[in-house]
Design goal:
The protein is of the alpha+beta class. About 35% of the residues lie in helices and about 35% in strands. Strands 1-2-3-4-5 form a five-stranded mixed sheet, sandwiched between helices. The radius of gyration is 14 Å and the shape is globular.
Length: about 120
């Protein structure tokens, strides 16, 4: 069981690296990674122009599993953490959103923009 958990952790970290690289290639600036707050954790904080995105990254073993990787509960935790973190990363005039990036082997990352509408 501990081995399975460790493998999932390593897969998740690799997915976060892939997501950060993918975003960077698309012009996003990576501001921070794995930011913890009392409300929850944000995997990536990124900026493009005046847009700050708090990004949840989900990595699965197969592309088929990605359809079930994210739910409203998890998104609400990311949104709550983003609220705590906004003053640290966003300034006046910046727009804020919560995004999701889904990662699986042999597929391009799937970027869901503005995933949280709370």
């Amino acid at each position: 069981m501990a081995r399975d958990r460790r493998a999932a952790e390593l897969r998740g970290r690799d997915g976060e690296r892939r997501a950060a690289w993918w975003l960077w290639l698309r012009g996003w600036q990576i501001l921070d990674r794995r930011v913890r707050t009392p409300a929850g954790e944000v995997d990536l904080v990124v900026r493009k122009g005046n847009l700050i995105a708090f990004v949840e990254v989900k990595t699965r073993r197969t592309a088929a599993e990605l359809d079930f990787a994210i739910d409203q509960f998890r998104l609400s935790r990311v949104a709550a953490a983003a609220e705590v973190l906004m003053p640290r990363y966003a300034g006046p005039g910046d727009d804020i959103r919560v995004d999701v990036i889904l990662i699986a082997p042999k597929t391009l990352p799937r970027h869901i923009e503005n995933a949280w509408i709370g």
